[in-house]
Amino acid sequence: MFSKFIRRPVFAIVISVVIVFMGVLAIKTLPTSQFPEISPPMVMVSCAYPGASAKVLTESVLIPLEQAVNGVPGMKYMTSDAVSAGEANIQIVFNLGTDPEQAVVNVNTRIAQVVNRLPVLVQREGLIVNRVVPNMLMYVNLYSKDKGTDMKYLFNYAGVNMIPEIQRINGIGRASILGSRQYAMRIWLKPDRMRAYNISADDVMKSLGDQSVIGSPGRIGRSDGGRAEALEYVLTYQGRFNDVEQYKNVILKANANGEMLRLKDVADVSLGSEFY
Questions:
Q1: Do residues 175 and 166 touch, judged by C-beta distance below 8 A?
Q2: How many distinct structural domains can be found in the chain?
Q3: Would you say residue 214 lies in a domain?
Q4: Gap between the Cα atoms of 208 and 227, Å rounded
Q5: How many Cα atoms sit within 13 Å of 15 on the Cβ side?
Q6: Other CB atoms within 10 A of residue 122 CB
Q7: Which pLDDT does position 68 carry in this prediction?
Q8: Beta-bridge partner residues of 34
Q9: Taking CA 121 as the corner, what is the angle to CA 54 and CA 205, rounded to the nearest 5 degrees?
Q10: CA 224, 226, 232: angle at the middle one, nearest 5?
Q11: Residue 129: strand pairing partners
Q12: pTM of this prediction exceeds 0.70
């Protein structure tokens, strides 16, 4: 076959010109994209278990989630990791061509089947399922010249004011803060004081859950079918605590003599970051 092209160079040149001409015509019909999808779709499941070690996270959270997610349609493989800071992630990689939005829905459906088997704190913190965009297009560095501004303030400012604005821009796939440091109430327990007052960490957690709640007390003087009321009062409750002093004054123990043991007697309370 090659000998025919060698003996007939004009014929070979004509065929080459035709191929080039057809290629030029085909260029206009080819789909173009500024940032083509060259990596397989990925979905990340993030969870938090405050106070738990990496081993506890793996046994109580990651294993049930992996068993539930395993075999989701289009899945190629998955990886997971947990750190002693109380955070864990599962990355599910799907075959190239899988619809990423449908993949998120499928993973959410699988996770919903085992949420009730997870620890209460994990359920309270919530499970976050997001599509992972492997290619970051832009980094924005935030800084302040004010000497009174610390890192926690900048993280909070970016999360409250900047991220929502960026997410509303048309065409933005995802905007997030690297190494987020959200505000949280930090309670540093003192083991020696707790031993002296015979208080455990579970007692502290129970007191916080009982006293820092979102309540709906109801109404007074509401009319019904039997009688009419001229005045109606809506009872309000302060809701969950959001001040350091409120947490310090949480009552842990009390007796008939009016003596009370408060949280500030066995712990230091401060407003800091959720994770360090």
A1: yes
A2: 3
A3: yes
A4: 41
A5: 7
A6: 22
A7: 92
A8: none
A9: 105
A10: 35
A11: 45
A12: no
- Does 22 reside within a domain? no
| Residue 269 belongs to domain spanning | 184-273
Both structure tokens of 64: 């049930």
Cβ burial, residue 249 (10 Å; 0-12/13-18/19+) = middle
Identify whether residues 195 and 259 lie together within a single domain.
yes
212: tokens are: 């820092």
Strand partners, 44: 91, 130
CA–CA distance, 210 with 251 (Å, rounded to integer): 10
Flag whether 6 is in a domain: no
The pair of structure tokens assigned to 92 is 């599910």
Question: pLDDT tens digits for the chain (276 residues)?
Answer: 667 767 777 778 888 888 988 888 887 777 766 666 677 888 999 888 877 888 888 999 999 999 999 989 999 999 999 888 788 899 999 998 888 889 999 999 999 999 999 988 888 888 889 887 666 678 888 888 888 888 878 888 888 888 888 888 887 777 878 766 777 888 899 999 999 989 888 889 888 888 887 777 777 776 665 666 667 777 777 778 888 888 899 989 888 888 899 999 999 998 877 766
User: Distance of alpha carbon 13 from its chain centroid, rounded?
Assistant: 61
Give the C-alpha distances (Å, rounded to integers) separating 66 from 46, 93, 110: 12, 13, 10
Q: Residue 155: which of 25, 1, 5, 276 has the closest Cα?
A: 276
Q: Are 95 and 76 in contact (CB under 8 A)?
A: yes
157 to each of 129, 150, 234, how far by Cα in Å?
24, 11, 35
Report the C-alpha gap between 162 and 140 in whole angstroms.
10
Task: Judge contact between 43 and 100, C-beta under 8 A.
Answer: yes
CA 245 to CA 212: how far, in whole Å? 13
Tally the residues of the chain. 276
